[in-house]
Amino acid sequence: MKEYSEGYIHSIETMGLVDGPNIRVVIFMQGCPLRCLFCHNPDTWNKLSKTKVTSKEVVDVVRKYRSYIEEGGGVTFSGGEPLYQSEFLLDMLRLSKKAGIHTCIDTAGVGYDTKYLDDILKYTDLVLLDIKAIDEESYKKITGKSMKMFNQFIEKLKEHKNKIWIRQVIVPGINDNEEYILKLKKYLKQFDNIEKIELLPYHTMGVDKYKKLRIKYRLDGVPIMDVDKCKKLENMLNYIEKNS
Amino acid sequence: MDFYDDFKGSKWKTNIDVENFIESNYTEYLDGEEFLKGKSKKTDKVWNKCKKLLSREAISGVLDVETFIMSGIDNFEPGYIDRSNEVIVGLQTDEPLKRIVNPYGGLRMVKSALNSYGYSLDKELESSFEEFRKTHNDGVFDAYTDEIKLARHNHLITGLPDAYGRGRIIGDYRRLALYGADFLIEKKKEDLSKLKDIKDTSIIQLREEVNEQIKALELIKKMASRYGFDVSKPAKCAREAIEWTYLAYLAAAKQNNGAATSIGRNTTFFDIYIERDIKNGTLTEEEAQELIDQYVIKLRLIRHLRTPEYNELFAGDPTWVTESIGGMLDDQRSLVTKTSFRILNTLNNIGESAEPNLTILWSKKLPENFKNYTSKMSIKTHALQFENDDLMRPIFGHDYAISCCVSAMRLGYQSQFFGARMNFAKVLLYALNGGRDEITGDLVIDGIDEIKGEYLDCEEVLRQFDKVLKKTVKIYVDALNIIHYMHDKYAYESSQMAFLNTNPEYLMAFGLAGLSIVVDSFSAIQYGHVRVKRDDRGLTESFDIEFDYPRYGNNDKNVDGVAVNLVKRVYRELRKYPLYRDSKPTLSILTITSNVVYGKHTGATPDGRKSGVPFAPGANPTQGADKSGALASLASVAKLPYKDYLEDGISNTFSITPDTLGKEEETRISNLVKILDGYFGGGAHHLNVNVLDKQMLIDAMNNPNRYPNLTIRVSGYAVNFNKLTKEQQEEVISRTFHERV
């Protein structure tokens, strides 16, 4: 009998409509090595949780929604950081592809086990690449970690030529300015397969979770990002993308 | 020019066969909304007058009542809104929004309704009616058994149409336009001549009824002539086709006050005439849109006189003028026409509204452009409902329509006997309480053993539940047999039956309320270790659940399986009894807004629901129980078996915030299409869609003036949010809104 790897998940959202193309079953995985200032899922930081499942169990759940996801939708592994449970993730990706399901990972490109990375990218149809910052100093400030792992990840990503959706959270006072957008635009030129760029306005809906977990919220007092302004920056980025 | 110039086919010419006429003549439309036009000056003027009247009506609840004349097909002078600008005419009475007194269902109900709005019936009219005429309500109560009265009084079986018009019948009103009244009369006379063998009372009854139908057709001719139309002959153009069809419907609304009186499935039929006129150069696109807009305006003004208690059950003054749109002809061709778009475009032209109850018959194979347009309009107006054509078409053929909210029937060939609902949660509570009502203490169902233990035992509860269910179903069947016998006798809908085949198949529509509560309760009893607290009468008062248990709405195989088994069990029980006019029993999971009132009259239940808390609407999972995301919730409901068990319909109401549905409008539109394809592809029957922010509803509750036209879908129909009671508004807001955090 085949052995399926086991891992920890936080929850499953059966109807994800904003994490990849069309309708996605979103698997929120447990554990993340980063501690981003604006993280709204601190409940997924810890690698362990009470929900230990096998890869097959997870993919079986996804398969139940075939009639919704078969036309352009699929599964999205999010988190936490899905790469943080590399072996488990790979197994789920493999099983999904075997079942003919479109796969997507929503990742910050960190926390992976190098020996699985090639295979992970091989079985991933689309990478939602979460950009935290584009220089070492800001990256460290925002995530608490060095940019080294991320940089190695994007090299692999370029090699594998996966389709990419770029995502970045825009936080007032940190990166909500045109100057940064221009820099980001230049930075993104290294990728050939970007299909879409989304700027996500910073919100405070996760703050309650911090209170419950008794973790200090470090962006206290920072206002939520104006949605229209964020959209403007996004349009600007996409515009210059197309016209450069 | 002859009536039938340019129309193809011959089968429909010799026999009444609207279906064949449509098949032979309609033009499928595959493109998008680009051709649509805005509202005409005339429509603008007419609608502006209506808006003023509607806002006056909103203040008092009722604008006016005709108290000197009683209901009847031709009892009223013609009425207009703005005569020179109306391209479709005809009102129920001589004034817009003036309501009719219809005492045939029950005089007491009429008096109470009049009284609550500050009117009284003309004394002479009242006394002569009382002296000479027995009502449906009188007849029913002469025949009701003590068991029925007790079950009714204790809210075990409620909302029964025993004091008001039963509705649910859909005349095939298109017949008047296609054939004219004279041909229909001729056909009825032919039928009559064949009913010669008086072998039992059913033939006597039918002979009398057919003659009533013929009289009704004669009266419809007279009524139409008051508006200057000769409907004895077929319609000659699009305007007449729409007008004739509407007048046939109007006759029904003048004669009866049926709870839900739907109008059928007319857009593809109208489109044939519109296409012909446009080709002949006698109609422009602007004029075609004008006809449809004004047809819709007329349907928005249909009113019936209701009591406040009735409004509490069915909030917002609904009439369920359900118009079914779309669907497929066969596996390849859809019945989508330009007029399917035009009627939705009316929502752009004159704004959203609860009526008519626009119902999209969905198939995976509908043209993409039409799917996208319905999705777009649903997101914009929250006024559409969707029903699975791929599920209904094999059962009802391709020319069926939805009656009321979710109940299909083949037009002209079938009719329905409306049967309200059984309170399923009470069936369970009676099983726990030895057949006694948990609130009144009345012994409603006898022969039930009392359950005494501190903790509930699943086997024992099931045993008693089965006994209560069997007896309740019998009482329910008896009640409906009596009601429909008496309704035919004292309040026969001759004007509607005139547009049906002489011997239609009858569907007797039973219903269940509180399914999710019973399902979750059984799951709680099995997995949650439920402890009962009883009051000093020994009746259940509250329940403590010691462990988490799986709940309906999470795509859990076991719990959803319980739901499936329960509805099958109820249906099998219903099949055991002979029904009036050899009806076929059908069953629905539908509450309309009555889920609030059902909850109010039902004590605490073993799923943890407190006494008085509203039920979930229709087949929805209990508020807050569906925790695995929207698709899991939808998937649970989709498992309920439509074919062979729940053919009266399975209502599900789905609310989602715009941000959750997608980032841009285009994505939202395509995502909703995919949700609908997936849901119906999984075998589900019906979906109300609300794309709304919860915050907006809360704001609307506190500041109704800011949202005068806010329409939302509730179980099976759309309603103006402001017309809901506070309790109902709160219930809507407390429901699961699928949103992303």
How are the elements arranged and paired?
The complex is a heterodimer of chains A (244) and B (741).
Chain A: E1 6-16, E2 24-29, E3 52-54, H1 55-63, H2 66-69, E4 74-78, H3 86-98, E5 102-107, H4 114-122, E6 126-130, H5 136-143, H6 148-160, E7 163-170, H7 178-188, E8 194-201, H8 207-213, H9 227-243
Helix pairs in contact in A: 1-3, 3-4, 4-6, 7-9
Chain B: H1 11-14, H2 18-25, H3 41-60, E1 64-70, E2 98-101, H4 107-116, H5 123-132, H6 136-143, H7 146-153, E3 157-158, H8 174-194, H9 201-226, H10 238-255, H11 267-280, H12 285-300, H13 308-313, E4 322-326, H14 338-350, E5 357-362, H15 368-381, E6 385-388, H16 389-396, E7 400-403, E8 407-410, E9 414-418, E10 421-423, H17 424-432, H18 458-490, H19 494-497, E11 505-513, H20 515-528, E12 530-534, E13 540-545, H21 557-574, E14 584-589, H22 595-600, H23 630-638, E15 649-650, E16 653-656, H24 658-661, H25 665-681, E17 686-691, H26 694-702, E18 711-714, E19 717-720, H27 726-734, E20 737-738
Parallel strand pairs in B: 1-2, 4-5, 5-6, 9-11, 10-11, 11-14, 14-15, 16-17, 16-20
Antiparallel strand pairs in B: 3-10, 6-17, 7-8, 12-13, 18-19
Helix pairs in contact in B: 3-12, 6-18, 8-9, 8-10, 10-11, 10-12, 11-14, 12-14, 14-15, 15-25, 17-18, 20-21, 26-27
